[in-house]
Amino acid sequence: SISFIEDFSDFGRGELSSYSSRARQKLESLLNKNMRIRMTDGRTLVGLFLCTDRDCNVILGSAQEFLKSSDSFSQGEPRVLGLAMIPGHHVVSIEVESDSLVGTQGFGSSH
To answer: Which residues of the chain have pLDDT under 70?
Structure first.
């Protein structure tokens, strides 16, 4: 899982700028990786991370929607959405699928 929530109260101006630069590099390294986003209503969207903004809205490409599994009938085929925007205030968790990290600097083992 990835957490984007940080406490900036102890940062000086230079430290915040350095943190911001590292955070931007981290986000850029996740571009075009498969992500699983759980939402407040129980749905899960899986797709390619294309971009985000200051409000933490997320754009996924080739997205598929999986409904909350409350019974055996809701575990059927995912619904294909294509391009999807997830409002930041609806995001509960974000996970990067490990298969998409193989070969990425600092994450997977080299083969």
So the answer is: 1-16, 69-76, 100-111
